[in-house]
Design a protein that fits this description.
- It is a single chain.
- The chain is mainly alpha-helical.
- Helices cover 49% and strands 11% of the residues.
- The chain contains 7 helices and 5 strands, in the order ααβαβαβααββα.
- The strands form 2 sheets. A 3-stranded parallel beta sheet has the order 1-2-3, sandwiched between helices. A two-stranded antiparallel ribbon has the order 4-5.
- Helix 6 crosses helix 7.
- The longest helix is centred in the N-terminal third of the chain and has 20 residues.
Length: 189
């Protein structure tokens, strides 16, 4: 299903527009991943938790489980990592959903190699390596498995390829397993 997501929207904005509700209800997804910005500031945390509570019954009534995908703060706000992770953990617990700790994968990998470039040049969005880290965390939580040993080369649907140094990929894979064990939540289907 092709969905036209709006930039700079919080989950509550998507809810209020009303386009996504029939998409979720009609397509019977087994998991619906919910994500907005870092939500480390109080009002953003509150709206994240509210939106999770709005989306969860819709997702569950369609046969799925909500999964909160925790992101990272902007590159100039490293001190917000803890609160960002905590916000998503709270939202996931509110709805008995999964929590995918993607930002924590970055932090775990930086312990091994602080020069890993997870941010894109804008200091907010992920680089290809940052996206790879996100995907590993997602796979690990949703499939309840270790991601160590997964490929370091990816063929994208648009035809391009991402090739990561195998040693770097190994660090990120181990970091994903570590972050998933420490911060992730499996949720209840």
């Amino acid at each position: 299903v092709q969905v036209d997501w709006q930039p700079d929207f919080a989950l509550i904005d998507h809810w209020n527009v009303g386009f996504i509700q029939p998409v979720i209800a009609e397509n019977k997804y087994s998991v619906v991943v919910l994500q907005q910005g870092p939500s480390s500031v109080g009002v953003n945390r509150d709206t994240l938790r509210l939106a999770a509570k709005l989306f969860a019954p819709l997702v569950r009534n369609a046969g799925g489980m909500p999964a909160m995908m925790a992101v990272w703060p902007t590159a100039d706000r490293f001190s917000d990592f803890d609160r960002a992770t905590e916000s998503y953990q709270l939202a996931a617990k509110d709805v008995n959903g999964a929590m995918i700790p993607t930002g924590e994968v970055w932090r775990a990998a930086w312990k091994q190699n602080p020069s890993l470039a997870f941010y894109s040049p804008d200091g907010l969005h992920p680089s290809p390596l940052g996206s790879y880290a996100m995907a590993l965390s997602l796979i690990g939580i949703l499939y309840d498995r270790s991601v160590v040993g997964l490929p370091s080369t990816l063929q994208l649907s648009n035809g391009s390829r991402w090739v990561f140094d195998p040693a770097v990929a190994a660090i990120v894979q181990q970091a994903a397993d570590e972050a998933n064990r420490q911060y992730g939540l499996k949720g209840t289907p």
